[in-house]
Write a structure and sequence with these properties.
Number of helices: 4
Shape: elongated
GO molecular function: formylmethanofuran dehydrogenase activity
Largest sheet: 13 strands, mixed
Low-confidence stretches: none
Radius of gyration: 20 Å
InterPro entries: Formylmethanofuran_DH_suC (IPR017550), Glu_synth_asu_C_sf (IPR036485)
Helix content: under 10%
Mean pLDDT: 96
EC number: 1.2.7.12
Protein name: Formylmethanofuran dehydrogenase subunit C
Oligomer: single chain
Distance between the termini: 54 Å
Keywords: Oxidoreductase
Number of strands: 15
Structural class: mainly beta
Strand order of the largest sheet: 3-1-4-6-7-8-9-10-11-12-15-14-13
Length: about 270
């Protein structure tokens, strides 16, 4: 059975809320009902059928053939199945996902993966600010699952993260892991100022020493532990990286002591 495919007919004239187009909610619905679902965010009453040509029948596997920075909340709330977007998406893609797979063959806007608790999000391009961060008033960010961004990420990636894995492969902005509670963040490439600021626990694993660290972190020496080798093998097995990140006995910096934190920043030891 072919995937249920939404072929974009033209660039939308307004921002769209695509949170209704997830496998969980489309299962068993006829195409005519899907085409009648409202996705607009203004009084014009834009429906799915106004913007997309719908083909295929397998609602457990969705494809958006054509993307737009006006596609907001793609994959929000999905718990199973898969979504593939050929193109860019707007903000809050994968918001509150609990399972399934979201692949974006392009770039994503702000708050990608906010509230993620399970499943996997993979972006081939860049991600905006506050990757995996909580919304205003929420107490924690990512609490499970995996996010892989193969390009760059903006500021405050992994803010208040509690559990799970975030990987960014071409660097990120300032305040990586701000207020982090637990979990693991991997970054290759340049990291902006003050990574780990106010972190309580968790691990930031980098391929180089950060340029600007908070003075409330202290040198922990070289960590001659089995973890680095095991984690390097895990990243390669999961096809997140193609070569070891930390190597043996990486340098370890501990903090943030401003909040009596027990987190760590580790990066490859200089020879």
């Amino acid at each position: 059975m072919k995937p249920l495919t939404f072929r974009l007919l033209a660039e939308p004239g307004e921002r769209l809320d695509l949170s209704a187009l997830v496998p969980d909610r489309l299962a068993g619905q006829p195409v005519s009902d899907i085409a009648a679902l409202p996705v607009g965010t203004t009084r014009t009453g834009v429906k799915v059928g106004d913007l997309f040509r719908i083909t295929g029948k397998d609602a457990s596997s969705l494809v958006f053939d054509g993307g737009s920075r006006r596609f907001d909340q793609v994959g929000a709330g999905m718990t199973s199945g898969s979504i593939r977007v050929v193109g860019d998406v707007g903000f809050r893609a994968g918001r509150a996902m609990g399972g399934g797979t979201l692949v974006i063959e392009g770039s994503a806007g702000e708050e990608l993966g906010s509230g993620l608790s399970g499943g996997r999000i993979e972006v081939t391009g860049n991600a905006g600010d506050r990757l995996g961060a909580p919304l205003a008033g929420e107490l924690q960010g990512v609490s499970g699952g995996t996010i892989v961004v193969r390009g760059k990420a903006g500021h405050r990636a992994g803010e208040k993260m509690r559990r799970g894995l975030i990987a960014v492969l071409k660097g990120c902005g300032d305040h990586l892991g701000l207020g982090m509670i637990a979990g693991t963040i991997v970054v290759t490439g340049r990291v902006g100022a003050m990574p780990g600021y106010l972190m309580k626990r968790g691990s930031l694993l980098l391929d180089r020493r950060p340029d600007v660290l908070s003075p409330t972190f202290v040198d922990g020496g070289n960590a001659d532990i089995a973890f680095s080798g095991l984690f390097d093998r895990f990243l390669i097995a999961e096809k997140i990286l193609d070569k070891p990140l930390l190597g043996t006995a990486p340098t370890r910096i501990c903090g943030d002591n401003a909040v009596f934190g027990k987190g760590e920043i580790m990066f490859r030891r200089r020879r």
